[in-house]
Design goal:
The protein is mainly alpha-helical and 197 residues long. It has 3 domains: 64 residues, no CATH class; 51 residues, no CATH class; 58 residues, Arc Repressor Mutant, subunit A, CATH 1.10.10. 65% of the residues lie in helices and 0% in strands. The chain has 11 helices and no strands. Helix 9 crosses helix 10. The longest helix is centred in the N-terminal third of the chain and has 24 residues. The radius of gyration is 20 Å and the shape is globular. It starts with 7 loop residues before the first helix and ends in a 7-residue tail after the last helix.
Length: 197
């Protein structure tokens, strides 16, 4: 992960996670995917490369689930926060509508709790405020748009909830450390480097 801000979940992942053979259920999804992967690698056929890549993605997803299960009891983490119904609903709303001009009152009303109650639950379970969390996910979406599209800064600003490019650029630089144009240039120049993920 070459740039910040990372999704809060990625920040809580360990640098190394070891999944031992005895921890894998005999007929569980990881074992099934590993069996298919070993067969596909041992006897490649037409489309094997795609099958192997997709199986690796599936195995990765199941391992991430195991990590979440082991970490979800730790307070003030994203994996813990999504176990609280109100916080989970607020997170879902923010992610699906980053461009909306959210206020704490609007979000609390959509979730069905008081403003103070939502702010308190968010802080307790996630260690953040709803509006700061919104800013972070807006910057994540902005980075994705800067990296994968040729849209101008004004259009990207609007897509992530800012009425003008100046305000957006100011927040983007404060959160990521560099202006949007510099980010796009750096992204383009470093796209094929080995450490990019």
């Amino acid at each position: 992960m070459w740039n910040d801000p990372l999704h809060p979940f990625f920040k809580e992942l360990p640098e190394i996670y070891v999944l031992r053979n005895e921890e894998i259920e005999s007929f569980g999804p990881i074992q099934s995917a590993l069996t298919m992967l070993s067969r596909e690698a041992a006897e490649p056929q037409m489309g094997s490369e795609i099958v192997i890549q997709n199986l690796m993605d599936i195995i990765f997803s199941f391992i991430v689930r195991k990590i979440v299960e082991s970490k979800s009891s730790k307070p003030r983490t994203w994996s813990h926060a999504v176990h609280n119904d109100s916080v989970k609903r607020a997170i879902e709303l923010l992610h699906s509508n980053v461009e909306r001009d959210w206020t704490l009152e609007d979000l609390a009303k959509e979730v069905g709790v008081s403003r103070a109650g939502l702010a308190q639950k968010f802080k307790k379970h996630l260690g953040d405020t709803p509006l700061h969390y919104l800013t972070v996910i807006r910057m994540q979406k902005a980075r994705a748009l800067l990296s994968t599209t040729s849209e101008n800064i004004e259009t990207i600003a609007e897509a992530v909830g800012y009425s003008d490019a100046f305000s957006f650029s100011k927040v983007f630089k404060r959160i990521t450390g560099i202006p949007p144009r510099d980010f796009r240039n750096k992204d383009q120049s470093e796209r094929n480097t080995a450490y990019r993920y």
